[in-house]
Amino acid sequence: MKRALVIINPCAGTKQANRHFVQITDILCKAGYETVVATTAGRGDGTEIARTRSRKFDLVVCIGGDGTFNEVVAGVLESGSKVPIGYIPAGSTNDFGASLGLSRNIIQATKDIVMGVPVTLDIGSFNDRYFSYVASFGAFTATSYSVPQDLKNTLGHLAYILEGIRDIPSIKPLKLRVRNEVGVYGGEYIFGAVCNSTSMGGIITLDKKLVDMNDGLFEVLLIRSPKNIFELTQITMALTQGKYKECPMMSFFSSGNLHIEADPDMPWTLDGEYQPGSEEISIRNNRSAIRIMVGRDNAAAQDVLRTAGNKGKL
Question: Which positions are tagged coiled coil (predicted)?
Fold first, then answer.
């Protein structure tokens, strides 16, 4: 019999996964999996559980938000296992799941895992720590985690934009130097993101045509610090209209490896979780590092997993 390890964060989001847990395990059992469950109780638990136990299983299922998924992915990679990962998004933002078109319906997401196919996916490294979809700093880094829930419900995506834009005038410019395979970028910035996703914290939304989550490249966005109201207006218009390439206050490019020199006291977030800064930062794309289960008719995954290794699977 096949074996599945379920790693669940019982405190994720609105705790809706807890209410459906019997149904989740029933679906896995009926699909032929002997199911073992482990719960996380604190930061790092997901990594430790996956690192020490994933090699003994045929499938690892993560139930939680993007932060929990980040931990599980790190643990699987550290274990050296090639076990496929199933992700049931149950957090408050679920940017990563949205990029892959994973169902927000708990039961459907479970069915997609047991009836789906494994596809390969790039994973990032930030010095010695992994991230699944984004490493960011500055203005919008914490926005999706500070917007009140009732405002999210009322205004949706606009709520994130308004919250982030409101903070721009008060943000201290952050000086850094970014070097990649083709050039050097430097100056004062209010925001930066290195992502492998179409969505970043609910603020930045990229066209699916610009993103392939298995091509060995990140999409990088840097927003310069505005010096006057005109430059601030340019940034605001570009954010609300999604015209990042056309804005002179923004640098948008693709890259597989980045070397960053920055203030060591400048905080970052990796997949929405706090990451201390460093004077020297190496960000590397680990191509096709993990296998993740997606539904066979997942059109969104087809859009962002276009490389040869995944062709014909969906």
Answer: none
